[in-house]
Amino acid sequence: MSDVGGAPEPGQSTPARPPALAETGFDDLLREVLNRVHGVLDEQARWQLLLDAVVTMAADLSLDGLLSRIVRIAGDLAGARYAALGVLGDGPDRRLRLFVTHGATEEQIREIGDLPTGHGLLGLIIDRPEPLRLHDIAEHAASYGFPANHPPMRSFLGVPVRIRDKVFGNLYLTEKVGGGDFTLQDEEIVVALAAAAGVALENARLHEEAALRQRWLAATAEIAALLSAAPAGPESLQLVVDRARAVSGADLAWIVAGADVESLELQVVSGAKADLVAMSEISLESSLAGHVVRAGVAITVEDMALDPRAVDVTTLLGWPAVGPAIVVPLRSSEAMEGALALGWTRERLSGYQSLDPTLPASFAEQATLALQVARGREDQQRLALFEDRDRIGRDLHDLVIQRLFAIGLSLESASPLADRPELRTRLSAAVDDLDATIKDIRRSIFALSALDEATDVQAEVTRIVDRAATTLTFTPSLRFEGPVRTRITTQVVPDVLAVLGESLSNAARHSGASAVDVLLSAVDDVRLVVRDDGRGVPQDVTESGLSNMRQRAERLGGRCTITSTPGGGTTVEWSVPLG
């Protein structure tokens, strides 16, 4: 028997020894195992990072902050030097309306210039929303190349971000750190991040919508509270339009008032200078507001300059140019009041796209109801005041005037019994004074029916005439013909008052008159006549004020004639058509 470990017997083969590189192969195997262990650990760390990211994203309800966080996390998870999130717009072309970046410095972004809008390779993922990995961006057929001063980028990973079944945007990752390409594992973890990001973005969007609705509700409550203490006039409309522009974020807002398309008038504006005269001269019967008033439903347009139904009020009035706009009716269940328009510049299209038209429509409806309540409250106050003044007027007429009239008759009947001429003269003068007193009381009774408002032309004319007595040293006579309060429109009232004030001022300063007669008539037309017995208008007088009176009449389709003779007084006759 031979030892196991002895030399081989003759005829037997020598057993083969292990190769000399056996130990080296073991080292390579061990190194590979360690690399894979480290890879597994790295992969676990990345998934742990993803889990932490999902938790932190769920706590962020600020949409802008959330977008930046998603981009940064995606770059860290995939090991990308540059990352970006392109948010899709709501338009039919589905291009990018927002581009959030990470990795590029502010100087690089400034040198690149305009950020991409979704063409070329970026547009490919928009049109086909599915993950895409590339070894070299430049080799792809859809690549447009990079603009000047753009940092070099080769490897690429693109993943869509969905909110439910709708694509919200796309994640774009480039330049794998350390060189090489993005791996399948990179794609899987970014896809998982995109799914979690979609849920977080939906929560943030719902939170912002709820906050926006809360702002509109708060604005509605604020308007209702303000109008409860304010008169239902242009000031109230200004409150409505200012608040609507502030809450909506619009660049321009205006209100067209009128119960039907024939009476529409542009009354107030927010965000631009108001020229009331020019605004009143614009025809709005075939405008967007006219369509809204006629149909009673809101209208949205992408560009007012391209819509054939729109009247380009911005160009006519020198306002900032408006692209997209929303026009909603000012309507309640009882009546139509007009339309509220909100406009954005073309550079701020996203503000228009993010606004739900039902919010300003609901705001406008509640504001209209508040205006009608305020107007009804004013009507009740006016009715109570008229009733009170009517009672005073009846008492003055039935008691005071009748007694004065009786005293005057008694004095007049006693005059023939007086023996002395001086006594008869005094009695006659007393009777004349009583007649003048009765006329003054009747005039006061007539004035009691007028409310102290600037829109009440009869009250304003009376106030101007009474005020002129301080400079004339006597009270001008005043007479009204026809229903001036109801037939002279609010558009004509300011001109009537301006012409009256100028005429009385001229009489006080230049005429040296001892008597001035004022007549305001609303029978066949609106006619204002101011006549004095002064020295007349000099030949070389500068006609600045007189020229303004003529221009006011001509602008309203009327005329102004000034008749004057040296020493024979001056007559100003100003007339315009009714309505």
From TrEMBL:
SUPFAM superfamilies: ATPase domain of HSP90 chaperone/DNA topoisomerase II/histidine kinase, GAF domain-like. Residues 1-20 are annotated as: Disordered. Residues 499-579 form the Histidine kinase domain. GO terms for molecular function: phosphorelay sensor kinase activity; protein dimerization activity. It comes from the Bacteria. CDD domains: HATPase_UhpB-NarQ-NarX-like. One of its GO terms (cellular component) is membrane. Keywords: Kinase, Transferase, Two-component regulatory system. PROSITE patterns: HIS_KIN. SMART domains: GAF (SM00065), HATPase_c (SM00387). PANTHER family: NITRATE/NITRITE SENSOR PROTEIN NARX-RELATED, OXYGEN SENSOR HISTIDINE KINASE RESPONSE REGULATOR DOST. This is Histidine kinase-, DNA gyrase B-, and HSP90-like ATPase.
